[in-house]
Amino acid sequence: MLATFSSAVIASALLASSVKAGDHFILSQCRDLSYTRVDPMTNPGGIGPHVHNIVGASIFSPDSGSPDVLQQAKCSSTMIQDDKSNYWSPLVYYNHGNGSYSPMISSTRIYYFLKPLNGTTPVKAFPRGLRMLGGGYADHRPEQYPPRINAIKWGCSAGAVQGQGNGGSLPGQRPYLPNDAPNGCGVLTLVLDFDPEKKIKSNSSRSDHMSYPLDGPNGYNCPASHPNKYPTIFLEHFYFPSENQPYRGPNQDNWILSNGDATGLNMHGDFINGVSLTSFFTIESIN
């Protein structure tokens, strides 16, 4: 059974127009909503390019890219039911080494970091229906990683036991899949968090209107072209092998993304803001 919180708690955590107390908020115990070839940002109304792991609003579909549609969701697979946002990433598969693959069961945490990065730039509320994406698209291992690749942190699931969904931190972080992780793996993806001074379109395709900080995905300095700071979102997935997914050795491609990438550099996290206007007005009244 999912825990729920009041609109006031949700709003104060996620939508404060000027964050003065507390610097982060964690959504734990997030459940997988579905595994499906749907991406309302890149393929609205159609079939997506690859299978995604979906978290959030129950109404997720090829046509759920608008905030009006998201607000019709009856529930969320996160612990905050007033947040009708959706979060999705490529599904990770186990490679059996014989031409067959099976999905990896995952658990998800979502982190919202609210503290102004340089101590002065206020964190603004997400615009209604804002779309953002974090991560990379390269299918090789470049010598120098651009910001989108640096936004991906793979690691071993410390403390995970084979066949059990129980794990901890991500030691030995790297931007590519850790084939030396016999107990499973995890990934942390940082989503873009700056936008231009000009008014953005909430239904803009992907995240062309967004930018990472100048000093890296988790940096402090706003680009001059993108002075508006929004909460930083970390999407953290832990993947645990089942009894039928034995570790095949450090020199094997044990895991592969649903888009066919065995390096992990194609990992990305998508987000559509679905926090209700009711929650927004609640935060305005309590600030």
From TrEMBL:
<feature type="signal peptide">
    <location>
        <begin position="1"/>
        <end position="21"/>
    </location>
</feature>
<dbReference type="InterPro" id="IPR018535">
    <property type="entry name" value="DUF1996"/>
</dbReference>
<protein>
    <recommendedName>
        <fullName>DUF1996 domain-containing protein</fullName>
    </recommendedName>
</protein>
<keyword id="KW-0732">Signal</keyword>
<dbReference type="Pfam" id="PF09362">
    <property type="entry name" value="DUF1996"/>
</dbReference>
<feature type="domain" description="DUF1996">
    <location>
        <begin position="39"/>
        <end position="274"/>
    </location>
</feature>
